[in-house]
Amino acid sequence: MTVAAAPRLRSRPPATRSASASPETVHRLVRWSFYLFVASIPFEYPGRSIPLEITTITGCIFLIATGLQLGRCFGRAPSPMWAFMVFLYGFWVAFAMGGAAYPDEALKSFATLLQLVLIFWAAYNLLRDERVATEALIVYALAATAIAALTVVSSHNPDLAAARASGRVAMLEQNANRAGLVLACGAITLVGLVYSRPRPVFKHRFLVWPLLVIIVAAELKGSSRGSLLALTVGLWTFTISAPSLYTKIRNSFAVFFAFVLLTSAVYYTPLLRSRFERAEEGNLAGRQIIFPTAAGMFLEKPFFGWGPNQNKYELAYRLPGQEWDRRDTHNLILEVVTSVGMLGAIPFALGTGLCIWGAWRARRGVYGTLPFALTAAVMSANMSSNYIAFKLHWLVLAYAAAAGSLVAQRSTAARRQLRFAQTPPY
Questions:
Q1: What does residue 384 show for φ and ψ, rounded to 5 degrees?
Q2: How far is residue 144 CA from its own chain's centroid?
Q3: Interacting residues of 300 by C-beta distance below 8 A, sequence separation 6+
Q4: In a designed cystine with 371, which of 144, 154, 359, 425 is the match (CB 3.0 to 4.6 A)?
Q5: Residue 15: CB atoms within 10 Å
Q6: pLDDT tens, residue by residue, 123-160
Q7: Which pTM was predicted?
Q8: Residue 120 Ramachandran class (φ > 0 left, ψ -120 to 50 alpha, else beta)
Q9: Which residues contact 243 (CB under 8 A, 6 or more apart)?
Q10: How far is CA 12 from CA 18, 216, 239, 417, 422, in A?
Q11: b/e map of 333-353 (b: 16 or more CB within 10 Å)?
């Protein structure tokens, strides 16, 4: 008598966690210290009496708070982070090969970059939580709106000398271009929160339009050409990566209408109109001389560069009729290749490229087009300015990488489920 073999039961597929779920709830102090850091970005105050920047202080508070949950904040290391670590190693190699000039400035620059990479790492892990990411975006949008409102309603600019010389208005003695990028990202964030996500954050979308008007009015007072172009690029991305044809058509009409309004506002703003007219004539506020000079410096020392900070002194020395001891390259690419050469530029470009790819991949995820829009705006602004040490730059990269990783995680889980469904039960 033979006993029939019992059929092999099919086991359940491994439980998969939701794409935006977190393995551990974020501690309240960690969350609020992160929100404090995010809220402080628009309120940088260059004319302060203390030696540290406000965002550096709030960034340190955030990193100290991560000690409550080191595994939650630093347990997962994104691929771009390793590339940025190699870039930091290349920083010191370039410093040594460049003659180890200006060691005090090099140490300060390295400390800033190290803090930024650590913030990028921790923010990446926190922004993978949908609740934390949404609340952080709301905090940033409100902070940007607040500084915009102060700019619009205030008739007094603390930096009176700069205002009289240029006619450009920015609160707290901020650089007008940097303040303009903060405002542009604030406007893009508001649009993305209500128009690009599968689930809008605000039920009544029309409520964001008065806030957008305030931000654009502040942009016009700052008269930053680069930030206005960054705003245009960021808004344009909502038309090319919408989830449906209807949404693409709707967004295209909305962006076209916004572009017409911006163009009209520029035309009726004398200072801004004159700045764009000078740009058409080839006057780019000195960039028409800085860019080719910096490119020539790179060709002279392509592998190790001139060394951190030393590249700025060398650039100022080569520019004709300059009264400054050091001069910025006003371009992220030129800054990296002239300071650390290809040795540091390659890993930096790799890390940045992975973040951009993550932002593009995130279009079908829970965050929608917003990560790609913010990344496009920041990277376009870096073509006319150098924001490598700007906290907003690294925060946007962290958001892009986090959003892309969630989509990749969900795709991997879906493929596992599909393979399990196709496996014979016995």
A1: -115, 0
A2: 14
A3: none
A4: 359
A5: 6
A6: 999 999 999 999 999 999 999 999 999 888 874 444 44
A7: 0.86
A8: alpha
A9: 198, 363, 364, 368
A10: 17, 54, 42, 10, 13
A11: bbbbbbbbbbbbbbbbbbbbe
Within 154-267, residue ranges assigned H as helices are 160-166, 176-195, 208-222, 225-240, 245-267
Amino acid at position 150, single letter: L
The one-character DSSP state at 67 is: G
Of 322, 202, 211, 220, nearest in space to 263 by CA:
220
Residue 192 structure tokens: 């993305």
For the beta carbon of residue 202, count every other beta carbon within 10 angstroms: 12
Query: How many whole angstroms separate alpha carbon 66 and alpha carbon 8?
Result: 48
Whole-number Å distance between alpha carbons of 62 and 241: 33
The rounded distance, in Å, linking the Cα atoms of 343 and 303 is 6
Q: How far is Cα of residue 280 from the mean position of the Cα atoms in its chain?
A: 28
Copy the structure tokens of residue 328. 């910025």
pLDDT digits (tens, 9 = 90+) for 337-351: 999 999 999 999 999
Which of helix, strand or coil describes residue 28? Answer: helix
With a CB cutoff of 8 Å and minimum separation 6, the contacts of 89 are none
Residues comprising the chain, all counted: 426
Share above pLDDT 90 across residues of the chain, in percent, rounded to a whole number: 52
Q: Which single residue is written with the structure tokens 């030696």?
A: 51
Rounded distance between C-alpha atoms, residue 381 and residue 341, angstroms: 22
What are the tokens at 23? 């393995």
Pick from 361, 364, 370, 377: which is nearest to 138 by CA?
370
Q: What is the pLDDT of residue 45?
A: 74
| In the chain, where the domains are located | 28-414
Distance CA 106, CA 95 (A): 8
Which tokens is 312 given? Answer: 């700025």
CA 200 to centroid of chain Cα atoms: 22
339 CA to centre of own chain:
21
- Listed residue (397, 39, 387, 332) closest to 180, CA to CA: 387
Written as six digits, the tokens of 246 are 């209807």
Return the structure tokens found at 208.
């964001």
Contact criterion met (CB below 8 Å) for 370 and 195: no
Residue whose C-alpha is closest to residue 35's, from 379, 404, 395 = 395
Quick check: 329 and 311 in contact, CB under 8 A?
yes
Q: How many CA atoms lie within 13 A of 399 on its CB side?
A: 30
The first and second tokens of residue 17, run together, are 């966690």
In one-letter notation, the amino acid at residue 173 is E
